UniProtKB/TrEMBL annotation:
<feature type="region of interest" description="Disordered">
    <location>
        <begin position="557"/>
        <end position="585"/>
    </location>
</feature>
<dbReference type="InterPro" id="IPR007527">
    <property type="entry name" value="Znf_SWIM"/>
</dbReference>
<keyword id="KW-0862">Zinc</keyword>
<feature type="domain" description="SWIM-type">
    <location>
        <begin position="165"/>
        <end position="200"/>
    </location>
</feature>
<keyword id="KW-0863">Zinc-finger</keyword>
<dbReference type="GO" id="GO:0008270">
    <property type="term" value="F:zinc ion binding"/>
</dbReference>
<dbReference type="GO" id="GO:0031462">
    <property type="term" value="C:Cul2-RING ubiquitin ligase complex"/>
</dbReference>
<feature type="compositionally biased region" description="Polar residues">
    <location>
        <begin position="574"/>
        <end position="585"/>
    </location>
</feature>
<protein>
    <submittedName>
        <fullName>Zinc finger SWIM domain-containing protein 6</fullName>
    </submittedName>
</protein>
<keyword id="KW-0479">Metal-binding</keyword>
């Protein structure tokens, strides 16, 4: 996912007005015993000694604070402290790098032709191969900027390729990438992967320097002049016109550059106002989705779009803000598909495969707006966005030509404001209607909070609550809610990396459906003669509710070790348990029942 243009200059200005030569000498002397050499100070992973307090603090600061805030908070930052903050600011896990350089992190990949391909061709695998072959050289970290060269060996058909790669990062996230290979794809190219993994796996072999503004501040006038003249001499054909232009502006007292205090530094990290998120090439996402849609389901484009949806779910599971951002880009391209207008004019319906893509789009937006830790301003922004798409004439209906016959999502809910009566009389319901209605849902209900957060929540723990509708006869909690809505909550919890919470709520829903079945069976037995006289020969079928639930939680049950269920918690679902609450450690009968439900739903017509 390398950019095709050069990186823009830093967004913030750097100056060191609080420093002087005396204090800089003093700080180096005072911190010498603690810091030592920058090349050896704490950067070797081979040491077995306890981690220093400096490293512990620097690691926490590097994760949460933009470096500008650190500079503004403290008048003087000792050089060893700066070095450790800069050192710990680079991503430490390969998982996110893999996520941004391949379609999935361990499953079967689909090549550009839609066919299964050798995983060695994937950017992440190719990057690992380049790293392990010793093709990464000249690695240098200057502040929050990493650069190096990656050599791709010659093949029988291609000559050797040497790529210049640079990576900017902030708070353990890669925020910008540039590679001279000219790669045009959604994901990071193999050369960016190789350089990034070199820094993750071999940090002690990377030359580390402070931001360039700090280095310049240590120079006197003669050193600065020599530095500039040598820089111009080495790169005179590229920088001489720019250097002369800047010199003219600096010498002019009324120029704009002299009205600003400080100067930009592309190696000094992000400003306080910058959004902290992983680099995502929005233009490439839009172009790729537009290309797949234009192929009309041919050449594996449907598989590619489903893989993009899977990538959104993977980002949500990692609690990455780019999940909603990427889905927004995909939705914009779906709404701009010219076939929607053509089908509307001709009065024809879309194909089943295309219909399934739209259904998945709507389901993903349900997951996003039902994020249990979503901020109100975020939900408000998504609601305005969804309403804008919903108001477009060609927006697909929720259920083909019968969308207006479906019930409102917020009907018969035990919490939250009642459904908007206007939505009941709307002429049609689109694929975004349920997500719009889900914006009215919340997670503050005390009973719901107990269900999803406690392992031992039963009516025996709350003797003052005698409401029989909240617990079954065994004392296990129930959750009464429109079944598709409740299942959407389970899907949202699982998608956002909360497998334990999703399983607890799923068990409560299962117990609720069981109780409803028992009540209907009792009613049927009590009024058997009357019902048979009316021609009713069986109890009301709850199959729709069971199938909906099994589709929502089947993935979680089929991966009881928590790995496939998603999330970073790695929840475990044991087959049998007598001491744990049924919400997490469910019995073998319950597990088999849920697996059976999933199997029956997959085999149902």
């Amino acid at each position: 996912m390398a950019e095709r243009v050069q990186q823009p200059p830093a967004k913030r200005l750097c100056c060191r007005s609080g420093y002087n030569a005396t204090c800089k000498q003093g700080q180096r002397a005072a911190w010498a015993p603690c810091g030592g050499s920058a090349a050896t100070q704490g950067e070797s992973s081979k040491t077995q000694s306890p981690e220093s307090l400096l490293d512990i603090a620097a690691r926490k600061v590097a994760e949460k604070w933009p470096f500008q805030r650190v500079e503004e908070r403290f008048e003087r930052i000792p050089e060893p402290v700066q070095r450790r903050i800069v050192y710990w600011s680079f991503p430490r896990s390969e998982r996110e790098i893999c996520m941004y350089s391949s379609f999935n992190t361990g499953g079967e990949e689909i090549g550009s032709s839609g066919e299964s391909s050798d995983d060695t061709r994937l950017p992440f695998r190719r990057g690992i191969g380049l790293l392990e072959s010793g093709c990464v050289d000249n690695v240098l970290q200057v502040g929050f900027h990493l650069s190096g060269t990656v050599r791709e060996p010659a093949t029988s058909s291609e000559p050797e390729l040497v790529c210049n790669v640079s990576v900017s990062f902030d708070r353990c996230k890669i925020t910008a990438v540039t590679c001279s290979c000219g790669n045009k794809d959604i994901f990071y190219c193999a050369h960016v992967v190789a350089l990034s993994l070199y820094r993750v796996r071999k940090p002690e072999q990377v030359k580390l320097r402070l931001p360039i503004s700090e280095t310049l501040f240590q120079m006197n006038r003669d050193q600065l002049q020599k530095f500039v003249q040598y820089l111009i001499t080495v790169h005179h054909t590229e920088v001489l016109p720019t250097a002369q232009k800047l010199a003219d502006e600096i010498l002019s007292q009324n120029s704009e550059i002299n009205q600003v205090h400080g100067a930009p530094d592309p190696t000094a990290g992000a400003s306080v106002d910058d959004e902290n998120c992983w680099h995502l090439d929005e233009e490439q996402v839009q172009e790729q989705v537009k290309l797949f849609l234009s192929q009309g389901g041919y050449h594996g484009s449907g598989k590619q779009l489903n893989l993009l949806f899977s990538k959104v779910r993977e980002m949500l599971k990692m609690r990455d803000s780019n999940g909603a951002r990427m889905l927004t880009l995909i939705t914009e391209q779906f709404m701009g598909d010219p076939r929607l207008v053509l089908w509307r004019q001709q009065g024809t319906t879309m194909t089943d495969k295309y219909r399934q893509l739209w259904d998945e789009l709507g389901a993903l937006w349900m997951c996003i707006v039902l994020n249990p830790h979503c901020k109100p301003e975020q939900k408000g922004f998504w609601l305005r966005q969804l309403r804008r798409w919903n108001s477009v004439d060609v927006c697909p209906l929720e259920d083909g030509n019968h969308g207006s016959e479906l019930t409102n999502l917020t009907n018969a809910l035990p919490q939250g404001p009642p459904g908007n009566p206007d939505s009941l009389t709307r002429p049609h319901r689109t694929v975004f209607t349920r997500a719009i209605e889900a914006c009215d849902l919340h997670w503050q209900d005390p009973h719901l909070q107990h269900i999803i957060t406690e392992d031992h929540y039963t009516n025996y723990c709350y003797h003052d609550n005698l409401d029989s509708s909240l617990f079954d006869a065994r004392g296990w909690p129930l959750w009464h809610e429109h079944v598709p809505t409740a299942c959407a909550r389970v899907d949202a919890l699982r998608s956002h990396g909360y497998p334990k919470e999703a399983l607890r709520l799923a068990i409560a829903i299962v117990n609720t459906l069981r109780r409803q079945q028992q009540k209907q069976l009792e009613f049927f037995r009590t009024h058997e003669k009357e019902l048979l006289h009316k021609g009713i020969t069986s109890v009301t079928n709850l199959r729709v509710g069971w199938v909906t639930l099994s589709n929502s939680i089947g993935h979680t049950i089929q991966h009881p070790d928590g790995d496939g269920a998603g999330g970073q918690d790695g929840a475990t679902v044991p087959r049998t348990s007598q001491s744990c609450s049924p919400q997490v450690a469910i019995s073998s009968d319950d597990t088999d029942m849920l697996i059976g439900l999933q199997s029956s739903s997959n085999n149902s017509p």
